[in-house]
Amino acid sequence: MNQRWWIVIAGCLAHAVNSGLSYFGMSAYFPSFEREFGWSRTAISGAFSLARIESGLMGPLEGYLTDRLGPPRMMFIGIILCASGFFFLSLVNSLPTLYAVIVLGIVLGSSLGYNMPISVAIAKVFRARRSLAFGIFRMGPGLSGPLVPVVGWMIGLWGWRTAAVASALILLAVGLPLASVIAQTYKRHELALDEAPDSEVKVAAEPRIASEPQFTLREAMRTASFWTLSIAMALRHMVTEGVSVHFVILLVDRGWSTEAASGLLGVSVLIGAPARLGMGWLGDLLDKRRLIMGLLFSLSFSVFFMGWASHPYLFTPFMVIYSLAYGGLASLQEPIRADYFGTRYFASIHGMSRSVTTAGTFMGPIIAGFFYDLTKSYAIPFTFFAFVSLLSTLCMFMAKPPAKRETTVKEGI
Fold first, then answer.
1. Cα–chain-centroid distance for residue 97?
2. Whole-prediction pTM value?
3. Could you give the CA distance from residue 105 to residue 81 in angstroms, rounded to a whole number?
4. Which residues, in sequence order, are bridge partners of residue 410?
5. What is the 3-state secondary structure (H, E, C) of the chain?
6. Can you name the residues that pair with 209 across neighbouring β-strands?
7. Of the chain's two ends, which shows fewer C-beta atoms within 10 Å, N or C?
8. Around Cβ 118, how many Cβ atoms within 10 Å?
9. What is the Cα Rg of the chain in Å?
10. Biggest alpha carbon distance in the chain?
């Protein structure tokens, strides 16, 4: 096995632990915050939405820093910051403090330490099998499924404050060794290209000549494709963020315990893992844009019925469809962006695109919380999300590859 695949494997495992604790697992804290402090669901949702704003607004800066400092160094900074956020979460006693800890600690650390640097490393190292590599990497959140009920179990057994400290320790114990593996492998790859760009190193790695566009950030932003693709992803994130944040509390409202609801969320995440890998594989063979359109339509269909189907036997089949669509979409968004705009300035373009998706990721949880507080039901917001997903499908139809003179680059894989 080529050593560069260790970046993907270690990245997948690191992404799994981080997603289970810092993303999906955070929804398990929702009922505890509501019970202990009496905050409204709109107010609690605001913390998650504000975190999404931070991720988008900081995206261009994160991309710039990753281009300048390199993915390895950014990983270590982010992991330590994310773990610190969980330590401070255990001390939260007010809503502003909750907002600050989630935004400036957990979410910022997750983005700096996992999402941006690992995505950039994979995009730069892989070309011919890029979608498969991203599919394996994006299996991480799918594999994080078993951690979600563990978070719910820790909260039920020890309380949410102790569970936050335990999460911080797990992130450090697992994240730092995996970051070391990624850093060493990535540096060896970069050193090999610098020392022997046209020799035996690339011959052994099955060299191929690949035609790939190389847009600068300014050039990318001048294309309609950049904006339609970014808006499509923004609308898609509005749907999935809104559903993910309210998933556990929705089931608690329907009579489930926090542990059981967290367990079903874990199952949902785990179901999406095969779709992440499968769509990554198909993305190397078929038109990624059409694959994404089909997945967005499935997302719309499933979310609509999840909002109205209260009985477990009706809710679960649509949850399965939602999980598969969600998983498949997660593995295709970076590869299609790299295919459209190239990898030379991938971090900056990826970061700027995230700033566009901020509107969707910010509004999703708040819309769900607002309509619930208004109607005491999730049927209306989930119906709205179904319509938004259809609108995202239309934007994706319009997001055709940009026209630009192709640059010939020599790749090792």
1. 24
2. 0.68
3. 6
4. 209
5. CCCCHHHHHHHHHHHHHHHHHHHHHHHHHHHHHHHHHCCCHHHHHHHHHHHHHHHHHCHHHHHHHHHHHCHHHHHHHHHHHHHHHHHHHCCCCCHHHHHHHHHHHHHHHHHHHHHHHHHHHHHHHCCCCHHHHHHHHCHHHHHCCCHHHHHHHHHHHHCHHHHHHHHHHHHHHHHHHHHHHHHHHHHHHHHHHHHCCCCHHHHHCCCEEEEECCCCHHHHHCCHHHHHHHHHHHHHHHHHHHHHHHHHHHHHHCCCCHHHHHHHHHHHHHHHHHHHHHHHHHHCCCCHHHHHHHHHHHHHHHHHHHHHCCCHHHHHHHHHHHHHHHHHHHHHHHHHHHHHHCCCCHHHHHHHHHHHHHHHHHHHHHHHHHHHHHHCCCHHHHHHHHHHHHHHHHHHHHCCCCCCCCEEEEECC
6. 410
7. N
8. 28
9. 20
10. 67
Question: Which residues have CB under 8 Å from 107's CB, separation 6+?
Answer: 22, 51, 52, 54, 55, 85
| pLDDT tens-place string over residues 213-238 | 788 888 888 999 999 999 999 999 99
Is 32 exposed, middle or buried (CB count within 10 Å of its CB: 0-12, 13-18, 19+)? middle
Q: Which residue has the tokens 């990245």?
A: 11
What pLDDT sits at residue 304?
Answer: 93
What are 239's two structure tokens? 């749907």
Place of tokens 């050193």: 191
| Rounded-to-integer distance, Cα 31 and Cα 34, Å | 5
User: Which position has the token pair 């998983």?
Assistant: 327
